[in-house]
Amino acid sequence: MQQRNPSRAVVRRVMRSLKRAIASFELPVVEKIAEKQSEDPFQILIATLLSARTKDATTQEASKRLFRVARTPASVAKLTARKIESLIYPVSFYHHKARHVKACCQLLVSHFNSQVPQTMEELTTLPGVGRKTANLVLILGFRSRENICVDTHVHRISNRLGWVITAQPEDTEEALYRAIDQQWWPFINLYFVTWGQNICRPIGPRCSECLIAPDCPRIGVRRRKSE
Ligand code: SF4
């Protein structure tokens, strides 16, 4: 894997600018749920499972409906998959997600004393939980300062900025641990997801409105908005 090393000054400038700029945008859904639910790792875990390839507003409503009926691993595990499906509809892949949520809760009850585990190794034994979900649960639910959560926005923006040269999000996670100081690890997801949803969009990024444009070589960007 090729590796770039952005200067510490550039990383600091970009992260500080984004920290200020995102204050005027809505928080990503899982951050919102984490804030409202006092960082309850269980609700963060379930909301993250529901959020894959689903709009934030849809995930938020689906999570609310589910947690209104059941808000612990034991109570969710008792629901039928069909019932979970009806509560989380219309999140994408609701049929599969309902089964993952139920199986995940059953395992939490049977193997983890109804507690969300606190290690990557244990978290990724849960059905439907990959590194992205596990990292977000560790950061938002357990205040870890040792993890980076890479989703499609973090992957795309890190590459556009030239901080990494990677083809897959899993490679981006590994490359970012080497490329940026640890103080930024828990925040890069929040900053880049918010920026990616609003400014540095997958298609037609709004480079002319982007605060970090002076530090961005726009690698791989072919079409910007209003060009
Ligand atoms: S300048 Fe354009 S490509 Fe670079 S971060 Fe901003 S919106 Fe994204």
What does this structure look like?
- The protein has helices at residues 8-21, 29-36, 41-51, 56-69, 73-78, 81-88, 94-111, 120-123, 131-142, 152-160, 169-179, 188-198.
- The longest helix is centred in the middle third of the chain and has 18 residues, at 94-111.
- It folds into two domains: 8-26 and 147-215, Endonuclease Iii, domain 2 (Orthogonal Bundle); 40-142, Endonuclease III, domain 1 (Orthogonal Bundle), CATH 1.10.340.30.
- The protein starts with 7 loop residues before the first helix and ends in a 29-residue tail after the last helix.
- With 227 residues, it is mainly alpha-helical.
- The structure holds iron/sulfur cluster.
- Iron/sulfur cluster binds next to helix 10.
Summarize this entry quickly.
The chain is an all-alpha fold and 227 residues long. The protein has helices at 8-21, 29-36, 41-51, 56-69, 73-78, 81-88, 94-111, 120-123, 131-142, 152-160, 169-179, 188-198. Helix 2 (29-36) runs antiparallel to helix 3 (41-51) and helix 3 packs antiparallel against helix 9.
SSE topology sketch:
Layout: H1 8-21, H2 29-36, H3 41-51, H4 56-69, H5 73-78, H6 81-88, H7 94-111, H8 120-123, H9 131-142, H10 152-160, H11 169-179, H12 188-198
Bound molecules: iron/sulfur cluster (SF4).
The site of iron/sulfur cluster has 13 residues, from helix 10.
